[in-house]
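Subject — a protein and its fold

Tokens — whole-number codes for backbone shape
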Amino acid sequence: MTEVEAKKPQESLQDRLAQVVELLHRHKLVEDLTHRQEGQHHDRVESLVHRQNLAELQRKLDDVHPADIAHILEALPLDDRLTVWQLVKAERDGDILLEVSDAVRETLIADMDDHEILAAAKDLDADELADLAPELPRDVVHELMESLDAQQRERVRSALSYEEDQVGALMDFEMVTIREDVSLEVVLRYLRRLKELPGHTDKLFVVDYDGVLKGVLPIKRLLVNDPEKQVGEVMADDPVSFHPDEDGYDAAQAFERYDLISAPVVDKNGKLIGRLTIDEMVDLIREESESEVLNMAGLREEEDIFASVWKSVRNRWAWLAINLVTAFLASRVIGLFEGSIEKLVALAALMPIVAGIGGNSGNQTITMIVRAMALGQISTGNTARLVRKELGVSLINGILWGGVIGGVAYSLYGSWSLGVVMTAAMTLNLLLAALMGVLIPMTLARLGRDPAMGASVMITAMTDSGGFFIFLGMASIFLL
């Protein structure tokens, strides 16, 4: 058997989660059984079984990557989560806290003593400490800052001075800098003396004696060029760089556009102050995507899936209240046409179709617009053209699918006039959905709000009320 064949196949993340859940279940089951037993050695047996099961679970956790442990913690109810958290080795706490979601991190920190938090944070880098600091108790942050050296303390304060989605808050400070007037052989000898390179080091940063960025030396150029050459001869003197007050999402788009792994961050004088790395950009894009999904549904913040009932209610109530108001308005629109519905019962069966298709079409438009706004593809110069394009799409879809449903209405109720009204109402409601699908996110953006915030709730309200009014109004005019 070859070495490759002899290796144990790597377990999937779901396999690891299933094993942890099984061990937790077995632990609870044995505990229940021992609790029911009585006898002289009951306490001793219970303690032995308890330690045996938890030891097995701890061995399993010791072999799992911190990011995978974070996923497991997020997938467990609170009691099981805290049981697993207590079994994690203390030196791994900091790495895991950085990986879990904000909502889950809150529950884990709440379960830790001050000295445990300090122990978890002591080995973290400045940028990582800045990520955790806003969620730690104030006295712990103060004690933590006092334990840092002057350089680390200044770096943490620098990172905390920026908004969480700015480049300055996302950059790290671990990087390799070199001079342009040394040979590649000198650089290679310097690198060999280092214990290890910072993560995601694909290039070295070339600076002058004042720390001003002069260029970058990609590792691949360092390896393939003549060692006698000077750094200045082979470096790239026009690297993609960022300023600390730039938007992090814009930087993430640049990373995708230019296939970057790392990039320098410079101040207004061109001095190198940090770097961005691909792992931070991937995390930012993922968080932005999750935030947009939550905002589209009207959720105010990320929610722990196993959060308390009351906390989940507080997170969700606002847009449900708005939705209730819009639903009441839609019902009042229907109430205006009670007489028409009584005379032609078919209207009650057909009107949800008009509203439902309009809502789906509006959500499609909003999704496209929000994505285009996130990518910076929309400007004042192309807004009118975009509106015309979306109206054109809706007009064609309205005539096409309105004609289909109109034909179905004719076949069901034997009224060609009802079919025509159905087609016209469908077309008009799709045009309304397209118009609102463009205007709602643009209006939210102009007001300084997230364009996705509650957009699906608002578009559904518009297409429901508008669809009912258009269909029932046309039916009252042309059919009765």
